[in-house]
Design a protein that fits this description.
- Helix content is 36%, strand content 30%.
- Strand 5 and strand 6 form a beta hairpin.
- It starts with a strand and ends with a helix.
- The longest helix has 19 residues, at 70-88.
- It is α+β, with helices and mostly antiparallel strands and 89 residues long.
């Protein structure tokens, strides 16, 4: 299995293979997820002090905060997948 990395802003990179969800931080359930992750010590704040615009949930239970819009992260993820598919052909 090839490791795919995705830029989540400000030079921060996450393994694309480990991402379960990319969500907006506005809803109360997601705010609860962030608080619980902070309490468990599995929250990674990659916003560099800027406003959180995307919350990335991984299969390892880590929660990553990003200052990049969820749509932008999705487009970057799709671009990586398209490049990988073209290389396989």
């Amino acid at each position: 299995m090839q490791i795919k990395l995705i830029n989540i802003g400000f030079g921060n990179i996450v393994s694309a293979n480990r991402i379960i969800a990319i969500v907006s931080p506005e809803s109360a359930p997601i705010k609860r997820v962030i608080t619980e992750a902070r309490d468990r010590g599995v929250l990674i704040d990659a916003t560099y002090g800027r406003r959180t615009r995307a919350v990335i949930i991984t299969d390892s239970g880590h929660v990553v905060l990003s200052a990049v819009q969820p749509e932008t992260v999705k487009h970057r993820l799709n671009a990586k997948e398209n490049i990988a598919m073209e290389e396989e052909e």
